[in-house]
Write a structure and sequence with these properties.
mainly alpha
Length: about 90
């Protein structure tokens, strides 16, 4: 893999998310409405955040579909995305 392909991938990650593209496939056993705290937070971000990048959207989607509670790293990023991109949190 060349450095140029990494640059292209990084550029794609920082592009604005269109609000409808799902980068993570929904698992067959996923049940809507039965959420862990991190899934609830990720769902909130996906519904309410303004100006998400593709990377932020994919991160929230992975947390939303995860069947395990988020670890410290993922919780950090969900908290940061929510703080930076969700207007209700700022008000």
């Amino acid at each position: 893999m060349s450095i140029f392909s990494l640059d292209d991938e990084m550029r794609r990650c920082l592009e604005p998310w269109d609000g409808s593209t799902w980068f993570v496939e929904q698992p067959e056993d996923f049940v809507k409405g039965i959420y862990t705290l991190s899934q609830y937070q990720a769902h909130y971000i996906l519904k309410r955040a303004v100006g998400l990048t593709r990377w932020e959207a994919e991160t929230a989607q992975r947390a939303y579909y995860s069947d395990k509670p988020a670890g410290p790293g993922l919780r950090f990023w969900l908290d940061r995305i929510e703080r930076d991109k969700c207007p209700e949190v700022l008000a």
